[in-house]
Amino acid sequence: MTKMWAGRTAGVTDSVADDFNSSIRFDCKMFREDITGSMAHAVMLGAKGIITRQESEQLIDGLQAILEDLDSGALEFDLGCEDIHMFVEQVLTQRLGDVGRKLHTARSRNDQVALDLRMYLRSQIDEITALVKDVLTALVDQAEANKAVIMPGYTHLQRAQPILFSHHLMAYAMMLLRDLDRLADCRKRMNVSPIGCCALAGTTYDTDRRFEARQLGFDSVAMNSIDGVSDRDFCVELMSGLSMLMMHLSRFSEELILWSSWEFQFIELSDAYTTGSSIMPQKKNPDMAELVRGKTGRVYGDLTALLTTLKGLPLAYNKDMQEDKEAVFDAVDTVKMCLKVFAPMLATLTVKPENMKKAAQGGFINATDLADYLVKKGMPFRSAYKISGQIVAKCMQSGCVLETLPLSEYQAFSDLFGEDLYHEIDLNTCVEKRISEGGTSLFSVETQIAYVKEKLA
Ligand code: ARG
Questions:
Q1: Is residue 272 domain-resident?
Q2: What CATH number is associated with residue 437?
Q3: Are residues 347 and 264 in the same domain?
Q4: Distance 114 CA to ligand 1 centre (A)
Q5: How many CB atoms neighbour CB 72 within 10 A?
Q6: Ligand 1 centroid from CA 309, angstroms
Q7: Residue 58's CB: how many other CB atoms inside 10 A?
């Protein structure tokens, strides 16, 4: 078929080149944005007298009909078209004749594609935001349902200090709140309209870019037309925010996988979010969590791909930039899929408080509290630290734990030890006394939960 841009050339290209060049397979995702963007353009052209009111109305009605036909399935994408922009204009022209040919006045596909992409990703950010909030809600619910459950807190994956399970969950909530902030921040810079920048230099027509931008819900317009059509920072920013979000989900997945292992048995994932093995009858595999962890690499890859594509591109538009869409769409779709499975997986998991408590009881997890006991009795911390270490070694030799070592043995290390030490090193005391802001005491965790709930409201 002869191309719409035939003129300078005959507009007849090789069919392999056509396939190579065409983007409609993936940019058809933006049909709604392309059509609403064009409707706003037609309104502006009519309002400014660049086309007649009647032509403007005809274009708007024609575009509306195309939108409805695409929604209902009466109209299908023509994969022979170069991209979604050409497709819509082609259908419009087939249906309206010459009036259809007026739509592209004072516009270029360069500002059009930048507009569509910003509008599309803007609404994707809103969807992702809602999905992240679902995960946060599941986190809050699990934290509230298991508020006082004690588990070992780890550093270096070695038992470190006792913490509340709810405290651990709230750590992830804080990460996700930052992710929401990043998305909102990215949305602000994304919500700037490039339409009217035209090919790169602006236009000689008396257009009204701000009027067009306002109709489409943008906060402002790109201040430099060359930047307006060349900028893909908003895609990179979004993918970087999404990478960070995936990194959080991946760390969390790793812990869920570990916690649900036979060795830990801190939690059990619901059957609905696990799979069996085709050979080992006893298996219950955390596939969903593993896939979230795995797909994180894929989202990082999308970010790296676009950064690399953009590196070294001269201003203004270059066809390389068509590569932005598959990367950013893949990142967005992947993140949405992960969030959709993550929230219910979290909401339906069962916590095993006895096992967490049992794990917290071994491993001398209260050794810091033993040292703090001596400090409170007047010993300098570094000396208390040393003695507590020696007591741990002693316990290991005699096969007991701090709670069961007799007082006489303690007193051989320091006469500051008294009967009250057993209360001080009790796991409940260790947790309850950590009242510092952000700490693991029930009061402090309740404050954190309230903070997250307030942010969600
Ligand atoms: N399909 C193109 C893209 O996604 C639209 C812009 C084409 N502009 C051009 N001058 N060829 O980037």
A1: yes
A2: 1.10.40.30
A3: yes
A4: 9
A5: 8
A6: 15
A7: 21
